[in-house]
C-alpha cells in the first residue's frame, strides 16, 4: 500500500465511527491513485442522504486534509 492509500484508509477508518453511530458503516472497495471506491452499508446503504454523506462529508474531508484531487465513487 502506498503512502497516499494508507493516509486515505487511515482517515476513513477514523470517520467510520460517525457512520456507525447512525447505524451505518462503510467498506473500502478499492483505491486507485486518488480515486476511492466505497460501499455504504447498514442504515447508510439505503439512506437518501448517502450521496451527500460521500461528497459533502467524506470526500470533502479527504480533499481538505490529504489531497484536493481525491474523488470518492460510490459502489452499490
From TrEMBL:
Domain (NIF system FeS cluster assembly NifU C-terminal): residue spans on this chain: 9-71
Pfam families: NifU
One record GO biological process: iron-sulfur cluster assembly
A molecular-function term among this protein's GO annotations: iron-sulfur cluster binding
Domain of life of the organism encoding this protein: Bacteria
PANTHER family: IRON-SULFUR CLUSTER SCAFFOLD PROTEIN NFU-RELATED (PTHR11178), NIFU-LIKE PROTEIN 3, CHLOROPLASTIC (PTHR11178:SF25)
Family to which this protein belongs: Belongs to the NifU family.
Name by which UniProt lists this protein: NifU family protein
Organism whose genome encodes this protein: Victivallis lenta
Organism classification: Bacteria, Pseudomonadati, Lentisphaerota, Lentisphaeria, Victivallales
